[in-house]
Amino acid sequence: MKTYKIGSLPGDGIGPEVAQEGLKALALVAELEDFRYELVDYPFSGAYYLKTKELVTDAVLDEWRTLDAVLLGAIGHPDVEPGLVERSVILGLRFGLDMYINLRPIKLYSEHLCPLKNKKPEDLDIVVVRENTEGMYSQIGGHLKKGTPDEVALVNGVYTWKGCERAIRYAFEIAAKRGAARGAADRKPQVTLVDKDNAIRPHDIWDRAFAQVAKEFPAIATDHAYVDACCMWMVKNPEWFDVIVTTNLFGDIITDLGAMLQGGMGIAASGNIHPGRTSMFEPIHGSAPKHAGKNVACPLGMISAVAMMLDFLGETKAAARVEGAVAELLGSGAIPSADTRSGISTSQMGDMVVAEIRKAAR
Ligand code: IPM
Ligand code: MG
C-alpha cells in the first residue's frame, strides 16, 4: 500500500485552527478508504519568522519536491513586513515547484448562502483556472530613487506562450471532464478566457494561445470577457460561466468575489497544481489575525482543500466523502453560514464534518 507523504504547513493566525480540522477529516477518510499517509510538519509562518528570522531556503524547496502534496493553512502576520513571508512560503511553493495551475472552484452548496437574489446551486458552479507562476506576480521589477520625490516603481507583467498555453489546455481538459460528468443532455461545456487585452495589449498572447488550443476541443464552447465585465457578469448572471481561465492577478481578484458568491471566504478552497508533481492545497482565505485564537473561523475552506488534495492524489472516493459531507451540512442548513457568524466553533464544525462522513459511511 502506498504511503502518501504530505507536508503540513499550518502557518499563522487562523491557519493552525482550520488546518487541524482539515486533518481530522483526512484521518477519518484514510481509515475508511484504507490508505496511509505520513505528515511532515513545517513551521514556516510570520510568527516563526519573528522568532527565528528563517524563511524558506532552496534546501527546503528541494525537500518539498519529494512530497506528494502540501496542506497549507494560512500565512500572514501583522508584525511582519507585508507579503514577506507570503512571498517566501506561498509564492515560494507556487513558483519554486512550478505549480502552474491554481484551481479554484466556485460552487454554491445552498441558496441561502448566496448574497445574490434568486440564485440557486445550479446557477453558480464555476471553476476558475488561474495561471499561477507568472503575470504581475513575476517579481521582476523594483524601485529607483526610493523614498525621494523622484521615486519610480516598476513591475513587469510576464506572459509566456508556454505559461498561457498550459493553463488554457488545463482549462479545456477540466471543461471536457465536467461536460462528461454532466452528460450530453445538459449544456455544452464552455471555457471563458478572462483578460484585459483592450487596455493591456500584450494580453493578446492569451487570445492567440486560446484560439490555438480551442481548435483541439471542437466540442467545447468558447467565450471571452474583459476582467471588469467578468466581475459584472459574475454578479449579474453567474450561470453563464462554466470554466474560466485567466491571468495570475485577475484570478486572484475574481476568486475573492467568487468566494463571497458561494457564501464567504470561509468556504473557498484552492489547489496549486503541477500535474504529476508535488502540489499544494489551501483555503483561499488569509490568516485573519482578528479572528485568530478564538475558535470562530470557518474551517470548511480548509476541509474542502483536503478534498481537492485527495482528488489530486487519486483518492477520489475519499474526496467525495469529504465534499459530500460539506455539501450535506451546508445544504441541510445544519451549518447556517460559512463565516464567523455561524454560531458554530471551528472545532465543532470540524467535528460535524467528521460525524457526517461517519453517518454517510454507515
Ligand atoms: C491568494 C492570496 C495570495 C495571492 C497572497 C497571500 C500572496 O491572496 O492565494 O489568493 O495573491 O495569490
Ligand atoms: Mg487572494
Note down, in words, how this protein is organized.
- The structure is a single chain.
- The chain has 362 residues and is α/β, with parallel strands linked by helices.
- The chain is built from eleven helices and twelve strands.
- The strands form two sheets. It has a ten-stranded mixed β-sheet, sandwiched between helices.
- Helix 10 crosses helix 11 (346-361).
- The relative contact order is 0.17.
- The structure holds 3-isopropylmalic acid and magnesium ion.
Bound molecules: 3-isopropylmalic acid, magnesium ion
Order of adjacent strands in the largest pleated sheet: 2-1-3-12-11-4-5-10-8-9
Major β-sheet annotation: 10 strands, mixed
Rounded mean pLDDT is 97
Query: Number of helical segments?
Result: 11
What's the count of strands? Answer: 12
- Poorly predicted regions: none
Q: Helical proportion?
A: 40-55%
Based on Cα principal axes, name the global outline. Answer: globular
Features:
11 helices; globular; alpha/beta; 12 strands; 10-stranded mixed beta sheet; 362 residues
What does this entry show, briefly?
This protein has 362 residues and is α/β, with parallel strands linked by helices. The chain contains eleven helices and twelve strands. Helix 1 links the parallel strand 1 (3-11) and strand 2 (36-41).
